[in-house]
Design a protein that fits this description.
By secondary structure, the protein is mainly α. A two-stranded antiparallel sheet has the order 1-2. Helix 2 crosses helix 3 and helix 4 packs parallel to helix 6. The C terminus is likely disordered.
């Protein structure tokens, strides 16, 4: 029994190899890109819109509302990144029902890559919002003593994101594989449906945690300072 799709190698030339993780990651990316192109091909800006477009707008608006509730006021700025994270993890979870498909999130290398995307995006959004000086000063807030602890926090939460997602996704796939070998088909099907629900929850948690980290990085004390100055002037 394979513990990770990394162990399934399709092609290798010296140090270069294509395993199931790489292959199915690209399959998933292409499927998501083609799906996005297909479902948005006939969008309209007129008053008369299709039910499908209204449904899509409800979903996008709902995601934007979730992002704003976390503390990111301009949801359109963060929606492409956070929405892509959610769709990738959710699609990887749904793909487990396809026979022979190896979900890439069952590999630690994939979850580490997703966590590194968040690790890189957090300072990029923070610098965009506060500037380089303002973002770097946040590491020494409220006192310089917190500098090493804030740096350790950046690394540890990235590791926690990767391990949490990997453990939850891999454990579900392992349990289903084991049950398929020792129990009738009906019982694993029920657990597969439960695993789909768990996978969607994990996609939601991963994207929300990423939004929380970005919100913390983009938080600025400028509005408070302006409010204080205004109150003093009054």
């Amino acid at each position: 029994m394979r513990l990770s799709p990394d162990e399934l190698i399709y092609w290798q030339l010296g140090l270069f190899k294509i395993n199931a993780t790489i292959a199915f990651t690209w399959v998933l990316i292409i499927a998501l890109a083609l799906g996005a192109k297909f479902i948005t091909r006939n969008l309209s800006t007129n008053l008369h819109r299709s039910r499908w477009q209204n449904f899509l707008e409800i979903i996008v608006t709902g995601i934007g509302t979730q992002i704003e509730e976390v503390g990111l006021h301009d949801s359109k700025k963060y929606l492409p990144f956070l929405g892509t994270l959610f769709l990738f993890v959710a699609a990887a979870s749904i793909s487990t029902i396809i026979p022979g498909f190896e979900p890439p999130t069952g590999s630690l290398s994939t979850t580490v890559a997703l966590a590194l995307c968040v690790f890189i995006a957090v300072p990029l959004f923070g610098i965009t919002e506060q500037g380089i000086g303002g973002y770097l000063r946040s590491y020494a807030s409220p006192t310089i003593i917190m500098l090493p602890f804030n740096i350790i926090s950046e690394a540890s939460r990235t590791l926690a994101l990767a391990v949490r997602l990997f453990g939850n996704m891999m454990s579900g796939a392992m349990i289903i594989a084991i049950l398929l070998t020792i129990t009738p088909l009906v019982f694993p099907i029920v657990l597969t449906m439960l695993g789909l629900l768990t996978g969607m929850v994990q996609a939601y948690i991963f994207s929300i945690l990423a939004a929380v980290y970005i919100a913390a990085a983009t938080h600025s004390d400028k509005p408070k300072a302006l409010a204080t100055e205004k109150a003093t002037a009054d």
